[in-house]
UniProtKB/TrEMBL annotation, chain B:
Species assigned in the record: Bifidobacterium apousia
Protein name: ABC transporter, permease protein
Sorted UniProt keywords: Membrane, Transmembrane, Transmembrane helix
Higher taxonomy: Bacteria, Bacillati, Actinomycetota, Actinomycetes, Bifidobacteriales
Segments passing through the bilayer: 12-38, 58-80, 101-131, 151-171, 178-196, 202-221
Pfam families named among the record's database cross-references: ABC2_membrane_4
Amino acid sequence: MQVLKADGIVQVFEGREVLSGLDLTLGQGEILGLLGANGAGKSTLLKILTGMQRPVGGRVCFLGRPLSEDYPGNLARMGVFINEPVFYESLSARENLEIDLTYLALADREHRDAGPTGISQLLDKVGLAADSTTPVGRYSMGMRQRLALARCMGHHPDLYLLDEPLNGLDPVAIGQLRDSLRSLAAQGSAILFSSHILSEVLRTADHVMVVADGRVSLRASVPELLNQGQEVAERTLVKAMEG
Amino acid sequence: MKTLLKLELKKTRLWPCIFGGLAVVAAALAIGGMFLAIGHTSGRSDPRLSSLAFVLQMAMVILLVGFSLVAAALCNLVFIEPYTGRNLALTLSFPISRSRILLAKLIFVGLFTALSYLAGTAITLTVMLLIDRLVGSLGTGSPSSLLEQVLLMLVTSLAGLVGLVGIALSIGFWKRSLPIMFAVLLLLDAVVGNLLSQSPLLSALLLLIIFLASLPAWWLLHRTLMKIELP
């Protein structure tokens, strides 16, 4: 089943075309790694796919219907993580999650039972149970990334849109994130994540998509890429990122 | 809506605004007390200065100006901070219609400001009336006309608060600048505060004009926030 489909996405900033007719599809249970040099348009694409930025041209469909049809209600079925994660700094991780889950509960009756137990499980899952009452303002970058992931996972979304989720994570946390993403995909969620760490994208994703100069310069299946060996695969990706 | 209001309460650091409100009441009491003292001593030669109605009007002007600053500080926490910079992504990620979130924010700011202003005014006026009784009453005229004047000032001051804050907030948000919002508000407060020492009816009229003038500003702010997207 197709979870996300974007056709001919065009975005222009200050007269410069950042995305030039970009197409994308993402199926249920699929993990797509999004690669590109800085300024290639990855974050812009993710913002458009969440509906938080309107493109100049093209359209986005979510679960077979235009994204704008039930917006922002559709956000209740997405786990979104754009740019650096932002929280209410004076509140604890638990309080931040309570706020998020209350908004989700308002948006979707199915999630009305999301209470403190669910929050404890989430915090445990991302390894923040011991720091759950510390104000988020005192968290390190890695802890903030993990809390952002907990926020995404809180309502079992159909689609995860994650912008640089590996930033600030140590190797252990990266491994845990990889396992989490694989497990979420196995449960049927579609995942699109961007990263600069080629080796990790190749280890986590089923497919990779490289954006260069606002266009898709490469879309390939990871097993096929890895058939030629890790080094060749990474060289191919770097070449595609150069446009 | 009740849940959305509770969420706004949870997200907002209200303590600075509560302390600000207490400081405004203290300032109104100090300045009002000073006018009372003048009325009881040298003000005897000036019938206006020795009128309790004028002294209370002055205290209410201080309260209006002070609470407009408190309300602006709250508007910064509720409107400017969440809709600018990195916080915008968080605000836009809530899967609730923007108009409902905005309405909840408006009700939250309105309730806090109105309740704190009414409580502050009640405390200030009660304390001043008690002091006036203790040290010997100033000329009050008829008690019913004094009450009418206080009520008129109270209602129009609430409208004036909405107006002053609305105009300053819209300009501040348009420029995405907290200092600009406070600069505009201080300018408006300075002009309005001086004009409000006129007769009570003229003051009421002026506050209503400010309220009406702020309606387009509120509408523009609403339209901007409804259409805002991630940069």
